[in-house]
Amino acid sequence: MKKIINTPKAPAPIGPYNQAVLVGNTLYTSGQIALNPVTMELVMDSIEVETHQVMENMKAVLEAADMTFENVIKTSIFISDMNNFSKINSVYAKYFDEATAPARETVEVANLPKFVNVEISMIAVK
């Protein structure tokens, strides 16, 4: 049976989806972009600031499911420009212990919702 996870501490969905779905002990998150959850405005001062907002949004979703970044087993990172990879990676790395970091793929795409530069989704297990 699935349990829908939504929190006001992360941006409200902007389409027919939920922030995350918990099935058993496994959490599947929707992709997060750099929307401020209070104002629903994009936070795009720099790629580092944008990535930090994405990770903070993801942190809120994980917390709503009683999880942390330690529970994450897989991430998917979608970026609009591979030239931003190192800057995104430096912010992303602050949220994980390198020795226990999750599996990951990073993919450059033509466009992302609202034409942001980065979107991240995760799978986590209790």
UniProtKB/TrEMBL annotation:
Pfam families xrefs: Ribonuc_L-PSP (PF01042)
Protein name listed in UniProt: RidA family protein
Annotated coiled-coil segments of the chain: none
InterPro entries: RidA (IPR006056), RutC-like_sf (IPR035959), YjgF/YER057c/UK114 (IPR006175)
GO cellular component labels: cytosol
Gene Ontology MF: a single term: deaminase activity
Family indicated by similarity: Belongs to the RutC family.
